[in-house]
Amino acid sequence: MLSIAVCDDETMDCCNLCVKIRKIMDELQMPCFIRSFYSGAELLRADETFDIIFLDIIMNDLDGLETARLIREKDYDRFLIFVSSSREFVLDAYDAEPYWYLLKPVEDQKLKRILQKIIRKKEIHTPEYLLVSREREKKKLYLEDLYYFEIRGREMDIHHKEGVFTYYKKMGVLEKELQGKDFFRCHKSYLVNLKYISGYNRQELILDNGEKLPLAKRRYEDFSREILRYMKVNGGIL
């Protein structure tokens, strides 16, 4: 699923572009999450991580060029597409390394070609991720950056490189969803990413970050087989 942000302080332009993007993505049978923003500051405050950002250049207070610069300071791995009613900012815009520069009104066919190109690139390069929902907010977390999951009552803690994220999920459901993706349920309360295991014994697992997780006695043999399989495919010595 692709996550898309549309930022434009002209409410009608912002809504119209969101509608066009949704229609095209539905035609391409590509699931996506689209969120609209009406200022650069609002976009920069968002908790979500977006794959594609459509950014109007001429905006009050914080314009699109400065917003793009601040986005690039945080993360370069985003498709930035500038949208403007004028060509005069084309040269300035390229300092932010945009993927494209669109003129208003945005042509449907041109927009479709751009989205198709991005989809092809993402299909080749994008690692898998979870889109976590909590209190009307969504957060995209790449599986390769997750250390482990911990269930606490009805809540699930995701231990991630950026910190701990909490949401509602059943461990059994999550375990099935991650089957075949190098995660192992080492204990009834823990689902661990095999990538980050640096050592283990019959009672516990040791992670690269120094944390230790319990290893259930009845899961030891299955775990030993899984970690050896993982090592054979990915290399490494325990």
Summarize the SSE layout with pairings.
Layout: E1 2-7, H1 11-27, E2 32-37, H2 40-45, E3 52-56, H3 64-74, E4 79-84, H4 90-93, E5 100-103, H5 108-125, E6 129-134, E7 137-142, E8 146-152, E9 155-160, E10 163-168, H6 171-177, E11 183-187, E12 190-193, E13 197-200, E14 204-207, E15 212-214, H7 220-234
Parallel strand pairs: 1-2, 1-3, 3-4, 4-5
Antiparallel strand pairs: 6-7, 8-9, 8-12, 9-10, 11-12, 13-14, 14-15
Low-confidence stretches: none
Question: Which term fits the overall shape?
Answer: elongated
List the strand order in the largest sheet: 2-1-3-4-5
- The helix/strand class is alpha/beta
Radius of gyration, CA atoms, in whole angstroms: 21 Å
Strand content: 25-35%
Describe the largest sheet: 5 strands, parallel
The amount of helix comes to 25-40%
Number of helices: 7
Average pLDDT taken over every residue: 88
Order of secondary-structure elements: EHEHEHEHEHEEEEEHEEEEEH
- Beta strand count: 15
Cα separation of the termini: 35 Å
Structural commentary:
The protein has 238 residues and is an alpha/beta fold. 33% of the residues lie in helices and 33% in strands. A hairpin with a 4-residue loop joins β14 and β15. α1 crosses α5. The model has no long low-confidence stretch (mean pLDDT 88).
